[in-house]
Amino acid sequence: MPRASGPLTEALARRTVLLDGGLSNQLTAQGCDLSGGLWTGRVLDERPDQVRAAHTAYARAGAEVLITSGYQIGPGHPRAAALLRRSVDLAARAAEAAEQEVWVAASVGPYGAVLADGSEYRGRYGLSVRELVAFHQPRIEALLDAGPDVLALETIPDPDEAEALLTVLARTGAPAWLSYTVAGGRTRSGAPLPEAFALAARSPQVIALGVNCCDPADVLPALEAAAATTAKPLLAYPNDGSVWEAATGTWHAPAGEAPWPTAAWRRAGARLIGGCCRIGPDRIAELGADVRG
Question: Span 37-65, mean pLDDT?
Fold first, then answer.
């Protein structure tokens, strides 16, 4: 079945849509080397067939949205534009081969992801909104050249960076979702969630907003804060509750993983549900059963 036949917004008006899971853990499971500052971008550059295989694994698990692999590709890379376009093409090929309708979401990671030092979990980079606009605009333009269905403005730690991204988005008119990474009822930079979500809710290009790459326990309070500011569809794709240590490049796993309260997330307004880091195809298949139920 070739890609998705209608806009993602139409599907979200009718039902909950299943996102994919963590790309990095799936590439690791496939034997790929993610060392170095580019992370999944290294595989995108050196072994694109493995990126397509990872997308295919999630599509076979039932994912209806595939998020592309250019999260850490910044404008400083000598082939940034080509790699970003390649990331969309690889996901689109996997989508076209899927048995179900599948949308392609072009990943636009935060400035901190390109630094590869964990800054996306802190924010407040010391840059102005104008400087962040200059950083993100060429990335977004390159991604849109490849024709994704939607932009995924994801793992955003800071309303200032959200403002920069929304400024670029307004210039393009493209649809996007925006998801913050959160902890303890605030964005990772410490901003209150109501004002952070209100900023995104005002953008006519934002078709959904919510959280990703956070502890599952932080999802429901964040969704409730978002629902208090907007009637737009919400989204949630947390990690497994592990904590990333940038200095060593390792995850510290939680002692035990509780079942995700996806029914409560849906009651709060979540219409896009999936997983982020350390959530693989098997878990996405389980989430699909929950979503369909």
Answer: 97
